[in-house]
Recover the amino acids of this structure.
C-alpha cells in the first residue's frame, strides 16, 4: 500500500541537502539511506519535480514523499492500552496523548494499531491490514475515547452510524483567550491548506462541511475551558475551528503555540455515545482528562 507525506520547508536559516534535512526534520523512522533510495526511485518530489540527493532545500519548498507500507512492517507490540469497555464485537479505549492511531510511512512502530494486534487476534479488516479495527481516529496528541471494531459486521454498522452522524462525540478543550459567549456554533468548511500540506484550514477550496458546537464551562484570566460537540468529523476540526475564531487550543504546536513541554494540545475526547452494532442498545462512555491536562489547567486557575 502506498501512502504520501506532504510537507512545506520553513524556518531554516541556510540551504541544506534534502537527504540531511528530511532525516533530521521528519518525526519518522526514515534513515538517511532510506531517504536516498526514495530519491533514487523518484519517490520524493520537490515542487512537483524529481530531484537528486544533492538538492538543497529552501524555505517554501513543497516536498511530497511516496512510500510503500508492507504488511511485514506492522508488528505486534505490547502496549499499555486503557480499555474502557469490551465485548465480542467492540472495544472502547482511552487513547493516551502522543500515541499515533495507525501506521503511516516512516512510522510503523509504537502506534495504537501495533498495540491492538498484540492485544487481540479479532479485529475488523474493512480498513485494510494496516488499520485493523479502526472505525474512526483522533490526532496523535489528542487524548480520549475511540471505538474499535472486532469484526467486519460491527465495523460496517458503526461506520454507517458515523456517516449518519449518529455517534455522539464530545471533547473538552482549553483554548487561548476569554470567550464571552456562553455557547456558539462554528459552521465553516475545512480543507487542506494550500500553503502547508500538513495543515488544514477554513477554506472554500476543495473543502468539506464542518460544524462544531461549543459551550464555555469555565473562564480564566487568559483562557477558557470549553466543551465541544462534533456534528462532522473533519481532520483537525476542533483545532482548526478554534483557531478560526481566534481561540486556538492551548499548547497546539500547529495551530497555536507550544508552551508546555512534551505534552500535546489540551484537547480530550471525553465522551462517546453510540448504538451497539449487535444488541442495538445505546451505550455511552466518558473518561477524565489526563493528569498532564489537569496540571496545566491548574496553572490557569491559579492566575
Amino acid at each position: 500500500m502506498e501512502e504520501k507525506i506532504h510537507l512545506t520547508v520553513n524556518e531554516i536559516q541556510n540551504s541544506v541537502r534534502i537527504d540531511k534535512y528530511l532525516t533530521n526534520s521528519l518525526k519518522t523512522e526514515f534513515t538517511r539511506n532510506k531517504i536516498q533510495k526514495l530519491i533514487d526511485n523518484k519517490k520524493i518530489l520537490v515542487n512537483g519535480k524529481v530531484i537528486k540527493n544533492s538538492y538543497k532545500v529552501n524555505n517554501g519548498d513543497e516536498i511530497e514523499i511516496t512510500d510503500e507500507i508492507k504488511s511485514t512492517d506492522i508488528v505486534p507490540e505490547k502496549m499499555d492500552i486503557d480499555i474502557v469497555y469490551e465485548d465480542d464485537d467492540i472495544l472502547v479505549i482511552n487513547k493516551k496523548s502522543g500515541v499515533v492511531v495507525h501506521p503511516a510511512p516512516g512510522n510503523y512502530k509504537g502506534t495504537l494499531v501495533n498495540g491492538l494486534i498484540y492485544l487481540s487476534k479479532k479485529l475488523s479488516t474493512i480498513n485494510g491490514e494496516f488499520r485493523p479495527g479502526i472505525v474512526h481516529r483522533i490526532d496523535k496528541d489528542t487524548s480520549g475515547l475511540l471505538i474499535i471494531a472486532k469484526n467486519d459486521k460491527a465495523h460496517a454498522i458503526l461506520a454507517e452510524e458515523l456517516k449518519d452522524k449518529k455517534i455522539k462525540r464530545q471533547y473538552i478543550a482549553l483554548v487561548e483567550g476569554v470567550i464571552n459567549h456562553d455557547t456558539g456554533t462554528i459552521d465553516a468548511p475545512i480543507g487542506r491548506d494550500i500553503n502547508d500540506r500538513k495543515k488544514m484550514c477554513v477554506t472554500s477550496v476543495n473543502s468539506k462541511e464542518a460544524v462544531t458546537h461549543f459551550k464555555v464551562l469555565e473562564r480564566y484570566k487568559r483562557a477558557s475551558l470549553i466543551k465541544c460537540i462534533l456534528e462532522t468529523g473533519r481532520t483537525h476540526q476542533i483545532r482548526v475551528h478554534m483557531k478560526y475564531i481566534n481561540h486556538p487550543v492551548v499548547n497546539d504546536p500547529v495551530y497555536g503555540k507550544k508552551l508546555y513541554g512534551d505534552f500535546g494540545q489540551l484537547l480530550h475526547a471525553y465522551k462517546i455515545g453510540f448504538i451497539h452494532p449487535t444488541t442495538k442498545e445505546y451505550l455511552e462512555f466518558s473518561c477524565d482528562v489526563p493528569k498532564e491536562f489537569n496540571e496545566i489547567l491548574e496553572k490557569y486557575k491559579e492566575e
